[in-house]
Amino acid sequence: MKNIILGVTGSVAAYKAAYIASILTKRGYNVDVIMTKSAMEFVTPLTFQSLTKNKVYWNMFEEITPKEIKHISLAKKADLCLIAPASANVIGKIATGIADDMLTTVVMAMNQVPIFICPAMNTNMYNNPIVQRNIRTLSELGYRFIDPKEAVLACGDLGKGALADVETIVNSVETYFK
């Protein structure tokens, strides 16, 4: 069984991560979900726990025990990391090496683990030169991006920034494992 870390960040598209978690779990993957605090404003950890049958992680300080440092053990256990949706904030943190929450700390602790990032944000945010620089930086370092699609966004704008289709994301993960 392959182990997938699903990082969920603060985006209105966070509810779609529940579908991703459900599909991957039903297809036989072990899915450990790590949520940012802002993601929990959109979807609750209980949703993901119910779908994956695994504890949901968000507080890296809660997880330190004498036997295990959870952000390290999760990073070592992972066969793949999928961040969907990925906010501009998290993309920027990873691109600059900031590890100040459970998700970014696990990502920084990963070694030779493929990391797929699925941006989801307003078109202006996505097209911002700083965000684009961060995406280029991560791409050059081997991070894989599943590009957002053009759609009418939650704010009403039409443009590129909507989370890629759930099936596109799931198929990218499954294609990697084939």
TrEMBL record:
> Per its UniProt record, what SUPFAM superfamilies does this chain match?
Homo-oligomeric flavin-containing Cys decarboxylases, HFCD
Quick one: a GO cellular component term? Answer: phosphopantothenoylcysteine decarboxylase complex
Q: Which InterPro entries match?
A: CoaBC, Flavin_trans-like, Flavoprotein
Q: Which GO terms describe its molecular function?
A: FMN binding; phosphopantothenate--cysteine ligase activity; phosphopantothenoylcysteine decarboxylase activity
Keyword match Lyase: yes
- What transmembrane ranges does the database entry give? none
- Mind telling me which Pfam families this protein's record contains? Flavoprotein
Keywords for the protein's UniProt record, in alphabetical order: Lyase
What is a biological process (GO) this protein takes part in? pantothenate catabolic process
All copies of domain Flavoprotein, residue ranges? 2-174
Per the UniProt entry, the Enzyme Commission number(s) are: 4.1.1.36
Protein name in UniProt: Phosphopantothenoylcysteine decarboxylase
Organism of derivation:
Ruminiclostridium papyrosolvens DSM 2782
